[in-house]
Design goal:
mainly alpha, globular, 3 domains, 578 residues, two-stranded parallel ribbon
Length: 578
Amino acid sequence: MALRIFSALLIAASCAVARQQPGAGFDLQSLPSEMRNALERYAADRESLAKFDSTPLSAAVRQRMSSLYSEWQKRLETVPFDDMSQSGKIDYLLFKNQLRHEQRGLDFEEKEIAEAEPLVPFAPAISKLAEDLRGMRFIKAPEAAATLHALNAQVEDAKKLLGKVKCSPFVANRAANEVTRLRAALKTWFTFYNGYDPSFTWWVPETYTKLDKNLENYAAQVREKKAGLKPGDTTTIIGNPIGRDRLIQELQYEMIPYTPEELLAVGNREFAWCENEMKRASREMGYGDDWHKALEKVKSDYVEPGKQPEMIRNLATEATEFVEKRNLVTIPPLARETWRMDMMTPKRQLINPFFTGGEVLSVSYPTDTMTYEQKMMSMRGNNIHFASATVFHELIPGHELQGFYADRYRTWRQIFTTPFYVEGWSLYWEMLLWDMDFAKSPEDRIGMLFWRMHRAARILFSINFHLGKWTPQECVDFLVNKVGHERENAAAEVRRSFLGHDRPLYQAAYMLGGLQLRALRKELVDSGKMTDRQFHDAILKENAIPIEMIRADLTNQKLTRDFVPSWKFYGEIQADRQ
């Protein structure tokens, strides 16, 4: 019955969309999708479950999320796909792709948990305490004390057996992080009862305190003995390479019909183009083909401490006026009015050595607590010519404009957010403004080329790392020796890439997403089918979805329920088979 009601509601929504006719000033891009209500309901369901229970390493949590995905997959089977609008069909395919990816993610999570299980044998018992609390199955104090006592014994046994466990540093570091998460979950469980339940407060605190300290010490031992991290080491980068099979799965989810090896070939080709252009600019500066010397000269052109915000404001105005003068995209007055600045903390600069943006531009520049070497690296890495490209990447027409539209158009698609669109959009503008001679001098061109080369390098180091071919240190050395990064900035870049917070393909998505949008512009603007302004406005109003689906909408591509991504936006690629 529920499935029939779901199908009927979608049919009704389809009819409502079909009946709407644009009136004077009506924005066609804001027409609703038949799938909107379903997508908003799914997002709310998923959020409710995530808020209810996020117990680490919990089989029950994984099973409940799997049930959610299965339930919605069954509902999708009832959707009258052929009766929907193009927008509805795109949302259907995106939803289908999302649910499949979520299910696969649980499978990979299961595999990773199994790899780390020998190092965390006590995880199920801690998870059960957290699960019982969430499910309002309250424990009696004597039983709680006995459980914690037994857990202490398990941790002690794990310490004794630690030397016999064979695993990679990646698995060991992941296990240590999971112990830290389990410790936090246990603290939440303890805090719920302690001081409120008199019997619990009499029985449990001493045993809990001992266990908590034991878990802390055990996590440190795993990091040192199995992951190779010295106590207090905050600089060594471990990461978690996911392997070729999962890379392929991630590419399928992002609707990129290329193999990892083919993308490495793309990265090498784009890197070579940047290197040739670097040499050309270097010759204009009088350094011949030694572009590294020209780059060193560019890095030395920075503003004095305290002047960076003023420089950024001026660069932002320059880029906005450049885009508006050429009628490239619609910039709502409110978007221009509401972006603002903040200063990045020294701690955050360890991970983000360059300023970041969007609605709030976070300025990365030296503070009084940094060492002399750190100050010089920060100023050199955020010099005037590097900033010239970074400002419009982060603000207008980049992330600030993009985010402004995303908050106002097809907001239900935000669950499909992909870095290939989010980061690709800003990188695409770096390419387009390069073609339009935005850079006024060879120094400015080197500033733009540095970032473009950096994004090609991101394809190379991130995919090679996840394929198990490069270590994190080799990634750092590549950025220093081949791209010209300051070493501390390169280490921060690699640390940011492999902390595990971003998707595995996030770093590669900058350049690849930019190349997708550039190919789509060639197809629609260079052919005369759309103006630049029409093209860019239409893309912004699609929201942050895979670019192949944006192309399907803008070209009114015929879509079927069993659609398979196939757009070879870079043409056929000969991959390096070595």
